[in-house]
Amino acid sequence: MKMWLLVAIGGALGALSRYWLGKWVNRWWQGDLPLGTMVINLSGSFALGLVLGYKNYLPLTVVLAFGTGFLGSFTTYSTLNYEFISLLKQGKYSIAFSYIFLSFSFGLICGFAGLYLAMNL
């Protein structure tokens, strides 16, 4: 199978997963903090850490389909920026900056946790 097709299939599945997980989280979360996007990005960062940790043991097809395709479309930097700017426009400065701080700091922590877990199991 062509590598680009694996990335495309993984990307389609990642985008659909992001859509449905975001809907599910936002159905029960009613706060101002965009928790759906945060859950998606943090879990995606953790999963990418796992992929990177196992990269030498996984076939290239899996790394491309899951790492590049699925996780590339599952996580969303553009939505994070949109939600951050929207919160600023609404005058919710403390929520906006908390969102950015938590997203980036915990994103790095989750990524390193996934990598650490993969390298130490």
Automatic annotation (TrEMBL):
<comment type="function">
    <text>Fluoride-specific ion channel. Important for reducing fluoride concentration in the cell, thus reducing its toxicity.</text>
</comment>
<keyword id="KW-0813">Transport</keyword>
<dbReference type="Pfam" id="PF02537">
    <property type="entry name" value="CRCB"/>
</dbReference>
<dbReference type="InterPro" id="IPR003691">
    <property type="entry name" value="FluC"/>
</dbReference>
<keyword id="KW-1133">Transmembrane helix</keyword>
<keyword id="KW-0407">Ion channel</keyword>
<feature type="transmembrane region" description="Helical">
    <location>
        <begin position="57"/>
        <end position="77"/>
    </location>
</feature>
<feature type="transmembrane region" description="Helical">
    <location>
        <begin position="33"/>
        <end position="52"/>
    </location>
</feature>
<comment type="similarity">
    <text>Belongs to the fluoride channel Fluc/FEX (TC 1.A.43) family.</text>
</comment>
<dbReference type="GO" id="GO:0005886">
    <property type="term" value="C:plasma membrane"/>
</dbReference>
<feature type="binding site">
    <location>
        <position position="72"/>
    </location>
    <ligand>
        <name>Na(+)</name>
    </ligand>
</feature>
<dbReference type="GO" id="GO:0046872">
    <property type="term" value="F:metal ion binding"/>
</dbReference>
<feature type="transmembrane region" description="Helical">
    <location>
        <begin position="97"/>
        <end position="118"/>
    </location>
</feature>
<protein>
    <recommendedName>
        <fullName>Fluoride-specific ion channel FluC</fullName>
    </recommendedName>
</protein>
<dbReference type="GO" id="GO:0062054">
    <property type="term" value="F:fluoride channel activity"/>
</dbReference>
<keyword id="KW-0915">Sodium</keyword>
<keyword id="KW-0406">Ion transport</keyword>
<keyword id="KW-1003">Cell membrane</keyword>
<keyword id="KW-0812">Transmembrane</keyword>
<feature type="binding site">
    <location>
        <position position="75"/>
    </location>
    <ligand>
        <name>Na(+)</name>
    </ligand>
</feature>
<keyword id="KW-0472">Membrane</keyword>
<dbReference type="GO" id="GO:0140114">
    <property type="term" value="P:cellular detoxification of fluoride"/>
</dbReference>
<keyword id="KW-0479">Metal-binding</keyword>
